[in-house]
Amino acid sequence: MSKKVHVFNAGPCLLPQVAIDHAIEALKDFSGTGISVLSISHRTKEWDAVMDECRALWRELLHIPDTHEVVFLGGGASLQFLYVAMNYLEKKAAYLDTGVWAHKALKEAQGIGDAYAIACSKDKNYTYIPKGFDIPADLDYLHITTNNTIYGTEIHEDIDCPCPLIADMSSDIMSRPVDVSKYDLIYGGAQKNVGPAGVIFAIIRKDSLGRVSRYIPTMLDYRTHIDKLSMFNTPPVFAIFVMNETLKWLKSIGGVEAMYEINKKKAALLYDEIDRNSMFVGTAVKEDRSLMNVCFVMAPGKEDLQDEFFAFAKERGMVGIKGHRSVGGFRASLYNACTVEDVQALVDCMKEFETLKK
After folding, report:
1. Model confidence over 185-223: pLDDT tens digits?
2. Helix, strand, coil shares of the chain as percentages rounded to 5?
């Protein structure tokens, strides 16, 4: 019998088993066609049904208003950094610099036009979310990264913004309720919470487009993909199929609202143990701690035990708890499909290690 593993990878994410099982079935026979989903034409009625269902699930689960459209694209969220600037940056844009990915998004925009960091938390190694900064009303947009996977910080509420608001929600989408009406654009990669790597989502306020004077290459124009229902070119079919199955699972357990309560419970369980345990200490400011990525290190004076704890945890089935290579330490990613039982297993492991080393 294989050993039970508890997956805390920062991405690609742990997916619900039912989505994996349905994907395996579709690899053999997609929707009774006798054809694998890997070989199905995206110009068939069977595939149209998947696309329609997936868009409808996005709308239902996030209560997306009719003012916004949902598109699915390839290229990853990193390519969306360029999409954002190409479609929205005319005169000046501001970016909230809260981590590596937020900074990369800013850098991409600076290659297109006038973009600057409105506030930055790099002074304390991105361990907090800046607050109290003024947002000019005449900006083309303010860009935020709502969850910072490397440093374990998160913006927990939709901010009130006097200018158009754009958010990279790659790593916390569908983990908590969001007021989509407050955003001109929400985008992200699926591989943190809602599917495998290979597809991105973009939730776009339709009347926010067409305001820049520059030429936008056809593939980089959001209007192209809205008009063609995300099939201007061949979409990432398999990734979208698995995303659809993942969203069906999310709906079956009560949707985003129910998932939010589970996510709060998981995060509290682990953060409480970090704060209690004499072996470990959290790295993010408590009020800005992420529900998705829990970052921590060995307590002062215990640093020489880090490798020993990694080996100890691995022996007990903990997978993916090593911190990002740029910061070290530990990171447990508690994405939607990660269970309370998985988190409890990690907590028990930390308690056992403390008992052995006291």
Report:
1. 999 999 999 999 999 999 999 999 999 999 999 999 999
2. 40, 15, 40
- Render pLDDT for 158-168 as a digit per residue (tens, 0 to 9): 999 999 999 99
Does residue 324 have a pLDDT over 70? yes
The residues pairing with 70 across neighbouring beta strands, listed in sequence order, are 203
Q: Would you name the residues annotated as active-site residues?
A: 101, 168, 192
**Which of 286, 284, 308, 287 shows the shortest CA–CA distance to 296?**
284
Number of domains in the chain: 2
Judged by DSSP in three states, 225 sits in: helix
Q: Are residues 243 and 271 in the same domain?
A: no
Phi, psi of 72 (to 5 degrees): -120, 130
Looking up residue 343, the CATH number of its domain turns out to be 3.90.1150.10
| Owning domain of residue 99 | 17-252
Which one, of 263, 260, 258, 255, lies nearest residue 60 by Cα? Answer: 255
The residue ranges of DSSP E strands in 74-219, in sequence order, are: 93-97, 115-120, 141-145, 147-148, 153-154, 165-168, 185-189, 200-205
- The residues, any chain, with a CB within 8 Å of residue 263's CB and separated by 6 or more, are 175, 176, 291, 292, 334, 336
- Measured CA to CA, the distance from residue 321 to residue 353 in angstroms comes to 15
Cα–Cα distance list, 208 to 78, 180, 205, 211, 343 (Å): 21, 14, 6, 7, 41
User: What CATH code is carried by the domain that includes residue 99?
Assistant: 3.40.640.10
Residues 259 and 179 in one domain: no
pLDDT of residue 1: 42
| DSSP reduced 3-state for 145 | strand
- Kindly state the tokens that stand for 264: 């709060």
Q: Which tens digit of pLDDT belongs to each residue from 243-299?
A: 999 999 999 999 999 999 999 999 999 999 999 999 999 999 999 999 999 999 999
3-class SS at 293? strand
Indicate if the pLDDT at residue 3 is higher than 90.
no
Dig out the tokens for 94 from the structure: 């501001």
